Amino acid sequence: REGFDTVVAAGGDGTLNEAVQAYVDDEGKPIAGPPLTIIPCGTGGDFARCCGLGTHGPVAGAGSGAANRGV
Q1: pTM for the whole structure
Q2: How far apart are alpha carbons 59 and 66 in whole angstroms?
Q3: 7 with 36: CB under 8 angstroms?
Q4: Residue 59 to residues 49, 62, 65, 66: CA-CA distances in angstroms?
Q5: CA dihedral of 6, 41, 56, 5, whole degrees rounded to 10
Q6: CB atoms within 10 A of CB 54
Q7: What is the pLDDT of residue 67?
Q8: DSSP labels for 45-70?
Q9: Count of C-beta atoms within a 10 Å radius of residue 4
Q10: pLDDT of residue 25
Q11: pLDDT digits (tens, 9 = 90+) for 4-61
Q12: Strand pairing partners for 40?
């Protein structure tokens, strides 16, 4: 995580799940890190759809509008 300006996760819910694991410790507590950008291009896209982010194409994630909505 150190030395990166942004983390980009391109994929679906499974890819996003793997990416966000870098933002929690072994006890599930949040760890600070660079902003996370989601490029929803998976099969289902449940997370992106439920957050109103769309299901295909880049959207800004943590550190932008999504974070302000409690995502």
Answers
A1: 0.65
A2: 9
A3: yes
A4: 12, 10, 10, 9
A5: 0
A6: 13
A7: 40
A8: -HHHHHTTS-SSS-EE-TTSHHHHTT
A9: 10
A10: 93
A11: 899 998 888 899 899 999 999 999 999 999 998 888 887 777 888 888 876 665 554 4
A12: 11
